[in-house]
Amino acid sequence: MTPYYADDLVTIYHGEALATLAEMPNASVDVLLTDPPYSSGGMYRGDRAADPLTKYRGNIDGGGLVRDIGSFAGDNRDQHSWMAWTSAWVWAASRVLAPSRHAFMFADWRQVAAATDSVQAGGLIYRGLLTWDKTEGAGGRPMRGRFRQHSEFIVWATSGPLAELADVYPGSVITVASEPHTTRLHPTQKPVALLEHLLRVVPGSDRVVLDPFMGSGSTLVAAKAHGQRAIGIEAEEKWCEIAANRCRQEVLGLGA
Predict the structure, then answer these.
(1) Burial class of residue 182, CB neighbours in 10 A (0-12, 13-18, 19+)
(2) Collapsing DSSP states into helix, strand and coil, what is residue 245?
(3) Cβ neighbours for 192, distance < 8 A, ≥ 6 positions apart
């Protein structure tokens, strides 16, 4: 495979996740950390088929005018199809994940049940559900008589029993404010601090982090901050270029 971008720590591939994973060697990465399309954002099929910028605009800028940061593909499956697709790519990713390693997959509340089933169907051991608290001021608009949805979830799994443990004791609720809309490069961009927190349980700086749904590259930036190597896969070239530019800035010492 020819990388779209590469430096001393980061490699980016422009391609579809399943096809690219099929070309990667067995047991060649140490962490799976990814935020795949949720195919969520509504209660009905018609809602879920809407453009992601329409579905998630409340999370992007509080429901006002969305900045021109572009939409993304692959977010329009119904739940049955989403679960089948997720099981397939998790299976492909589990082949390239070394034994006794961590896997983290983001999901929202509508897809949690399907996500936990999918990681197990894909051959991983489900370890637990972590909660990302975006803080009340940063996520979810108030709704009269209802609980505000200002959290997302991370399905935590491993590729078999853990052989080595980092000397940390993190909690299962992670409080990090959402990426501000003024600095967001991708509609569903995760803050680097959140991804760094997840990587705390991964011992050693010689690990390789894989994100098969890379988006704007926040996982790659977080891995680099830990001195770890990272591999990103992304089907849409515009996001490959944005992620590559962020990594180039890191190389030049200009920040993320």
Answers:
(1) exposed
(2) helix
(3) 218, 221, 222, 225, 256
Residue-wise DSSP of 19-88: HHHHTSPTT-EEEEEE------SSSSHHHHTS-HHHHTHHHHHTTSPPPS----SS----HHHHHHHHHH
Query: Which two tokens mark 57?
Result: 């605009």
- 198 and 209 Cβ atoms separated by less than 8 Å: no
pLDDT in tens, the chain (256 residues): 899 999 999 999 999 999 999 999 999 999 999 999 988 755 555 555 666 666 555 544 444 444 566 666 666 778 889 999 999 999 999 999 999 999 999 999 999 999 999 999 999 999 999 999 998 665 566 778 988 888 999 999 999 999 889 999 999 999 999 888 788 888 889 999 999 999 999 998 899 999 999 999 999 999 999 899 999 999 999 999 999 999 998 654 544 3
Closest CA to 9 of 240, 242, 238, 226: 226
pTM of the model: 0.87
Side chain identity at residue 256, one-letter code: A
Please tell me the distance from the alpha carbon of residue 62 to that of residue 227, in angstroms, as a whole number.
Answer: 35
Q: Which domains does the chain have, with CATH numbers?
A: 5-251 (3.40.50.150)
Nearest to 140, CA basis, from 41, 207, 25: 41
> How far apart are the C-alpha atoms of 18 and 244, rounded to whole Å?
21
* Cα–Cα distance for residue pair 114/150, rounded to 1 Å: 20
